[in-house]
Every structure is written in structure tokens, then in C-alpha cells.
Amino acid sequence: MTSVAEARHQQILQAATVCFGRRGFHQATMQDICSEVGLSPGSVYRYFRSKEDLIAALVEADRAKHIARIEAVRHQPDVFAALQTLADQTLASLNDPEMSLLHAEIGAEVHRNPQVKELVRNTNAAILDSLAETLRLAQERGAIDPNLEPRATAELLIAVVDGLSMRKSLFPEGDAVRHAALVQTMLARFLCPARVEPKAAVIVDQSGKE
After folding, report:
1. What's the distance, CA 159 to chain centroid?
2. At residue 41, what are phi and psi to the nearest 5 degrees?
3. What residues of the chain score a pLDDT lower than 50?
4. What pTM does this model have?
5. What local confidence, expressed as pLDDT, does residue 25 receive?
């Protein structure tokens, strides 16, 4: 895909994100998307034949983004610190109101449309596989608790993100980043229980009493 075509592709996807979040998947029309992006129907249909094609492209873009971030963790010298950074990035991404609404809309469509359900299941499986493998490699490097089962651990971490994403769609005024400190504490205690946080300094007076 040429750079111009790729840019147009992304513009249409962004317009679809806005329209699906604003009106819902079934109420939004291809004409709404054309109007939002400022293109003729013929121009949009050159890239996407239907709303289903748009959803497939949006889900695939989400999959690629998350897997790229997860796999980047494997190449960092401090894998646990990289996992913490990944957690911060993920929480920050939940604050995007348009994406929050889109995720909620796709989640609802999963229960109505078998094709969308299969697409989302496959995407989630790919993200789960990538995170589980990253955790396994982190165990090999001694970065996290070797007693954890990587796949079950990955499922639990993803479930935390899914839950926070759903809450953001219900309470858009909330700030997902406010949970960052708690999530970091959870990661430290869950993934690396042997890591001991520094104790507060103890001040001793001249008499030797604390």
C-alpha cells in the first residue's frame, strides 16, 4: 500500500471509529462514515466494502498494536521494568474516549454477529499467546516468579485491562491512569513477590533510640 493510500486507509478507519462510537455499529451507516471523513462513497468503497470490513480492519489494527508492544518487552534489558512500562501505556490508551466506546460497541456486536465474534476471539487469542510467551521468556531470564503458569497469568492480566476498559466506557469521566500506582503494586507483588520495596528510613537520635 502506498503512503497516500495508507494515509487514506487510516483516515477512513478513524472516521469509522468516531461514527461507531457515536451512533453504534448498527445505527452508523457507510454514508455517515463518508461524511465524517469527507470522501465520496466510491472513494471509501475502494478500501472497504462494508461495515464488517471496517470492523475487521479496526480489530486487526488493535491486535497489531498490542502485539508489537508486548513483543518489544522481550528485547529490553530489564524485562520487569518493560512490563511496568507496558502497563502504563495500556492504561493511558484506555483514556481515549473514542476507542473506549468502540471497544464497548465491538464487545456488544460479538454477541450478535458470529463473524465478529470469531474475529475478536482470534485476535484475543493472538494477544494472549504473545503475552504468555513474553512472560515465559521473562521467567527464563529470572525477571518474574518461575512458579506462575504463563498462560493463566496472561489471562488474568488481560482480564484486568478488559475490566478497566469496560468501566471507562461506563464512566467516561474517569481517568484510567489513576489506577497506575495500584497496577504497578499489583504487578510487583504478583509477578515478583521476592522483590521487597525499600523500607522507610528510620531516624535514630543521638541517644540511640528510634
Report:
1. 11
2. -55, -40
3. 196-210
4. 0.82
5. 87
Q: What is the pLDDT of residue 173?
A: 83
Task: Give the span between the Cα atoms of 37 and 35, in whole angstroms.
Answer: 6
Residue 50: partners with Cβ closer than 8 Å, 6 or more residues away: 30
Whether 183 and 91 have beta carbons less than 8 Å apart is answered as yes
Residue with cell 493511558: 92
Domains, the chain, in order of start with CATH, read 1-49 (1.10.10.60), 55-191 (1.10.357.10)
Alpha carbon dihedral 158, 154, 68, 111, in 10-degree steps, equals: -40
- Confirm if 25 and 58 have CB atoms less than 8 A apart: no
Residue 165 in contact with residue 188, Cβ under 8 Å?
A: no
Long-range contacts of 30-37 (CB under 8 A, 24+ apart): 37/11, 37/12
